[in-house]
Design a protein that fits this description.
Chain A has 341 residues and is mostly helical. Helix content of chain A is 75%, strand content 1%. Classes of the chains: A mainly alpha (341), B mainly alpha (311).
């Protein structure tokens, strides 16, 4: 019983705080939009970290799972938005249906994660990277050729349902899940696979099963992130889910530290806000959009260089496998409660 | 029937180009056990070098035999230099680190090359980086019909013949180098076991650098052939072609030189058939579909040997 209460505690704190935040930021649309972008990226980074960081596999097709979630949730939402749940007020009914579409999108992405993961996770690191990349591309080409998903133009008219609260509730959920996985038997098995797959197998860890599970969990959350993305953009285009998007998430995970959830969160927030900040800074200094446009262009080569330099000087990433609560001033804050991981 | 033969000809012509790029992947994998993701992007840089030098030579000269040779040579030397630099500064320091580290570096390098070429940069009016807009590659080989059978039922273009000839010549040269020279012997030794090779007095660093330069030079040649065929060049072409060539190398059994050629020809044919009898929008998905099927049923590739993992 105590375990259940402890498990629900983060949500007991998060739900009122997020509701309060939503109430306070109701008349700051720019802040809300920015926070939604950040939230989606944090969800992607933390979920990818379960595969790339904790399990030591290298998936570079996360955008593909995000695309599955976005399209499926978008289509479901368009269909169900014609109906309403009669005994509920309209706003509540909308949110319930939105939640349903997100879940369906997430489950669809998880199914794809299973389908991709089951055969390909028997393969070694670099092959897996290529297969995930290929999967992402195939999904994109498939969507571009399917009438139901609007072909190259994308799916438009997805109802705008995303709120600050729902987006960040998913962020809290993915962080809690990642943290709990890390501290469980599962997490230790994943870490064992990362450190030495053969040794892990010799110790009785069913490596394929654990890898597939990590993959399914990660793709589920990528699907949720895609659903959230679809419901605030209201238009889902194949160009949002290219290799570039996958790489962006990989950079966040690598920079934050492979295996560190808080590292992934911080890197995702930082790397999402930095280009935005630079853009508006240049816009204010020069007054025209040319420099601001350059920021967008220069972002990608810098990401590439960041990966190379990071690997050369600090291959474990900013945080390594440590978490925020493992270091310095934060350590004392959390020390009182239970053991450390 | 004639349509079928036409598709076979086109497929083989594009397959030989993939083969040249795939050879670079497979050689580097052979000596380093590393997938050099940046290989396709090195090829892209080579294409731009060829573009710039052909433009410099002017229309007349660049179409002469000497001009064409010069374009190829300049691009190949430039790429060899880039391959050397990448190996020296990005991969060599990580050689003894976990494989994942090198893989991330390779992906980062690929990203860096292809996207920095999208940022248009001019220094004193001289274009250093070309920008994202596709550019028309100079017509260094003027397209003419080399062979026409029936009422244009089957057409073989001169550039198809030329690219097959150049590709075959480069591959024959490679085969000679790997199996008949001292350097080739050193390369095979390093590929077999680089630590023992080092103990036997083989300069491992130099052999690996040489392999990189060789692979990059071949890629530059392939890139120019591709640009002649496709006529448009743009910075992201390296990623697409590089990935397809990689797929070809895996299909043939990565690390196996003739296997890469067979894999590339097979890929070229399959792609051509899908475009010819299906839909061209599916073109880029073919390679990956093919790859996934091969990895499922024969993960070591057609010619690869099964390796068992030992502790």
């Amino acid at each position: 019983m105590g375990g259940i209460i402890r498990g629900l505690l983060p949500f007991g704190v998060a739900v009122p705080v997020l509701l309060l935040m939503q109430f306070l930021t109701a008349d700051a649309p720019f802040f809300v939009i920015l926070s939604l972008t950040v939230g989606v990226n944090v969800t992607l980074a933390v979920s990818l970290n379960i595969v790339n960081g904790m399990t030591g596999q290298f998936s570079i097709g996360h955008a593909g799972f995000m695309a599955v979630g976005a399209y499926i949730a978008g289509v479901v939402s368009k269909v169900v938005s014609q109906y309403g749940i009669s005994f509920l007020p309209e706003a509540v009914s909308d949110q319930v249906l939105y939640g349903v579409s997100l879940t369906v999108g997430g489950l669809a992405a998880a199914l794809f994660g299973f389908l991709v993961g089951l055969p390909s996770l028997r393969l070694k690191g670099d092959y897996l990277a290529i297969v995930t990349l290929g999967f992402g591309e195939i999904i994109r080409v498939f969507v571009q050729n399917t009438e139901m998903f609007g072909k190259a133009l994308g799916l438009s008219g997805v109802p705008q349902r995303t709120t600050f609260f729902s987006c960040w509730l998913i962020v809290v959920l993915v962080v809690v899940v990642a943290r709990r996985i890390r501290r469980s038997t599962h997490g230790r098995a994943l870490l064992a696979i990362r450190e030495d797959e053969i040794a892990a197998e010799a110790m009785g860890v069913n490596t394929t099963a654990y890898k597939v599970r990590a993959f399914v969990v990660a793709s589920f959350f990528a699907g949720l992130a895609g659903g959230v993305f679809a419901h605030y953009q209201s238009i889902v285009a194949p160009s949002s889910f290219t290799f570039v998007k996958s790489m962006e998430v990989v950079v966040m995970v690598v920079a934050g530290g492979l295996g560190s959830t808080t590292g992934a969160v911080i890197a995702a927030v930082f790397l999402t806000l930095l280009p935005e900040a630079l853009r508006s800074l240049f816009l204010q200094i020069t007054g025209d959009g040319s420099m601001a446009q350059k920021v967008e262009q220069i972002r990608m080569p810098i990401y590439g260089l960041l990966l190379v330099v990071m690997m050369l000087v600090r291959p474990q990433g900013l945080f390594g496998t440590r978490e925020l609560w493992d270091m310095g001033p934060f350590k004392r804050l959390f020390e009182g409660r239970g053991g450390r991981s | 029937m004639s349509e079928f033969i036409q598709h076979v000809i086109n497929g083989l012509a594009s397959g030989t180009i993939y083969a040249l790029v795939a050879l670079g992947y497979t050689m580097v994998y052979g000596v380093l056990k590393l997938i050099n993701f940046a290989h396709g992007d090195v090829m892209m840089v080579g294409v731009y070098v060829g573009y710039a030098s052909a433009k410099q030579m002017g229309r007349e000269f660049s179409q002469s035999f000497l001009g064409v040779c010069l374009t190829f040579l300049v691009a190949m030397f430039a790429c060899a230099a880039i391959g050397f630099l990448i190996e020296r500064f990005a991969y060599r320091p990580l050689r003894e680190k976990p494989k994942l580290t090198a893989l991330i570096t390779a992906i980062g390098m690929s990203f860096f090359l292809s996207y920095s070429f999208q940022v248009e940069t001019k220094v004193f009016g001289l274009t250093i980086l070309p920008g994202a807009a596709p550019k028309a590659f100079p017509e260094i080989i003027k397209p003419t019909e080399w062979l026409v059978i029936g009422d244009r039922a089957i057409v073989v273009w001169n550039w198809q013949v030329i690219s097959v000839l150049i590709a075959v010549a480069l591959m024959a040269g490679l085969q000679y180098l790997v199996f008949r020279t001292r350097f080739g012997m050193a390369m095979r030794a390093v590929s077999f076991d680089h630590r023992t090779a080092g103990l036997m007095g083989i300069p491992v660093d130099r052999v690996i650098a040489g392999t990189f330069m060789l692979g990059s030079a071949l890629a530059a040649g392939a890139g120019i052939l591709y640009a002649v065929k496709d006529t448009l060049v743009q910075p992201l072409m390296g990623i697409t072609i590089g990935l397809k060539a990689f797929v070809a190398a895996v299909i043939g059994g990565i690390g196996h030189v003739p296997g890469a050629v067979v894999g590339a020809l097979a890929l070229g044919l399959v792609e051509e058939f899908v475009v010819g009898y299906g839909s061209s929008t599916w073109r880029d998905a073919v390679a990956f579909g093919f790859l996934i099927v091969v990895l499922l049923f024969k993960p070591e590739g057609i010619f690869g040997k099964v390796t068992t993992e030992k502790v």
